[in-house]
Amino acid sequence: MTTLSKNTAPAQTRTTSATPAPVLSVRDVRIGDRVTDREIVHGVSFELTPGKVVGIVGESGSGKTLTCRAALGILPPHFEVTGGSIEIAGTDIATLTPARWTALRGATISAVFQDPASYLNPSIRVGPQIAEVVRVKKGLKRREARHRALELLQAVHLRDPELVYTQYTHELSGGMLQRVLIAAAIAADPRILIADEATTALDVTVQAEILDLLADLREQAGLALVVVSHDLAVVAQLCDEVLVMRQGEVVEHGPVEAVFHDPRHEYTQLLIAEHEQYGLEKFLTPQDPS
Ligand SMILES: Nc1ncnc2c1ncn2[C@@H]1O[C@H](COP(=O)(O)OP(=O)(O)OP(=O)(O)O)[C@@H](O)[C@H]1O
Ligand SMILES: [Mg+2]
What we know:
It is a single chain. By secondary structure, the protein is an alpha/beta fold. Helices cover 35% and strands 23% of the residues. Among the domains are: 48-69 and 231-280, no CATH class; 110-190, no CATH class. It has helices at residues 64-72, 98-104, 126-138, 142-155, 161-165, 174-185, 204-221, 232-238, 256-261, 266-275, and strands at 24-33, 38-48, 53-58, 79-88, 91-92, 109-112, 192-196, 224-228, 241-246, 249-255. Helix 3 (126-138) packs across helix 4 (142-155) and helix 4 crosses helix 6. Mean pLDDT is 88; it is low at 1-16. The structure holds adenosine-5'-triphosphate and magnesium ion. The site of adenosine-5'-triphosphate has 9 residues, from helix 1.
């Protein structure tokens, strides 16, 4: 029996009793550095169905971000997928032309990274930047796009959307900026959102609010999420499944409850021991003794 306790009935699984088709399949993906001819990521596999949340944890430099970037088709220069396959909504991304990628990015798969500054233009007000995403990706007219951008700023629980619309990135706090980024990332109604350390820089209260927001999106829109975090409590709270990475390898992969309650690999045991002080327990439901 599997005990996926918290989040077993996301919105979109209602329509069919069979397992829904995956929106993202990552199969034994290997990533290499062309310059040094070294393999950096040695085979990562996971599957996302609508409303499912997969977490990736593990030490710095273990390949979490590279794995995410591979799925988004934005590996840094001289990195390449050297093995395995990635499918987005049934399409192998190796077959995508640049034009198809442009259509897919934002509209089907989208991402929020830790460094907001690099994704928003500091010299343009944030509202028009979101409106532009909506205009280009959803084909809305300027006025409708503005209206939609305001709705999105509201949806990410920014208190004064009209004001934020007219502000520049330097006028916003870290938490506000992160919300703006999420608004931009979900502007074209993606089916998959990758959140790579998206809440790391934020204080605990703001972080909790952003996590609630992601959980809402998953419930309401059936958004599938990949959540990369150093914080095991975040993963415990939000994810169905977790991958534990070390030095480019997935050392453990399974339902969050199982992995965090009964870690098999010594590295996972170490990670959990380190996190015990943060009160990981309170995010895990008690194991069914049966
Ligand atoms: N743009 C880049 N140029 C050169 N090397 C890189 C680049 N991005 C990643 N690497 C290397 O690839 C390896 C994996 O990096 P990656 O960013 O995926 O790690 P990570 O698990 O996301 O780490 P962190 O938790 O610190 O974000 C690291 O050894 C890193 O040095
Ligand atoms: Mg990273």
